[in-house]
Predict the 3D structure of the following.
Amino acid sequence: MNGIHDMGGMHGMGPIEREKNEPVFHARWEARVYALNRATGMWGKWNLDASRHSREVIAPAEYLRMSYYEKWLEGTITLLVQTGMITRAELESGKPAQGSVKATPRLTPAMVPQLVSRGIPAIREGAAPPRFQAGQRVRARNMHPVGHTRLPRYARGKFGVIERDHGAYVFPDTNAAFQGEKPQHVYSVRFAARELWGEQASARDSIYIDMWDDYLEHA
Amino acid sequence: MDMSRRGFIAAAGAAAGGDSAHAEEHAHAHQAVPSDPALRTKALESLLVEKGLVDPKALDALIDTFEHKVGPRNGARVVARAWVDPAYKQRLMTNASAAIAELGYSGLQGEHMLVIENTPKVHNLVVCTLCSCYPWPVLGLPPVWYKSAPYRSRAVIDPRGVLREFGLDLADDVEVRVWDSTAELRYLVLPERPAGSEKLTEEQLATLVTRDAMVGVAKVALPGEGARA
């Protein structure tokens, strides 16, 4: 979706504000939101791409107003409600409704080290062969899907060169919509800064963007 | 304040172990804020725990991991090893995930790692314009500025301006490469080893390597020097 989250190249967002000796979390609730997001994600009711999309659908004005973990909180609640794990009424009352879901396995403390150290790989074997090879000139498709995509707007329709083939990965556009993983090759594609931004950019500089086969066409 | 919000605040207050009058008072003090995320989080956690869906001790374990066990010290050890051990550096550049795992770092948001090397003529900078992708096993969770609209919007269109804001003024003949983390690959910048560090041990070198240098918004400096171009 052409949402506010797709920020590359926007102006007017102000200076970059840094904090010395920044804590990992600025408040206990931020830490709880972070952990709740991970723990509920373990149920397999949704996936990483759906989780990202749940934050992208926050209305633009709210997205800009909210702190980072406020967005995570709202996204997590959206997914919990969409998948029927909680209802808005339960959240307001703080009490489970009669006969509500209870059966899903939960993340235990003993499972945490393995979850953290193994992660959740997105690479897949047995995908379709790559459509492109290193050194080939390509064009990012001019596409504007209303759902989740990881093709940033600033690159659409632009010409680049395949730098390397990373292997095949889960395709976010279908995975976020629960329409299957559709694994396909992902490439590092190099775009000259001037191809993206015109004469104001340095002729020496490049932007490297990771792109799936379905985002690219021959040029 | 509408009824649903009042009901929510009262429930959250009860869930927090306080009385609802106190919660109301608290809410009154923050009426300018549309919803208090601390109370909303408490209400959500209490509900999920009561439903048997979440074990609060598992949440504690996750938080402890990312507050105390994972962070930029991990990445600094990887960088220092690469500086002193050419064979390790070779492995790091060709199969970063495996080389990083040799030092015991792996997993969530670092499943598919790539290392990009800074040289006197090439400077690399990492961003995630679409959200907040960042290599957790080696750098921990990202700082607020990395996730903020100003950094995400400007790193790709004005990387040299962004670097100047971080105090790094690159010469015109240095090539800047910006890496937008749009897929599941996660990037770690291998900074240049500072001149004059030849006599330092691997451990001493690791103490010099900063998070910012491994994101590509700074260089590594010897103690007492500014981290400048």
Remarks:
- Strands of chain B lie at 112-117, 122-127, 175-180, 185-190.
- Chain B has 13 helices and four strands.
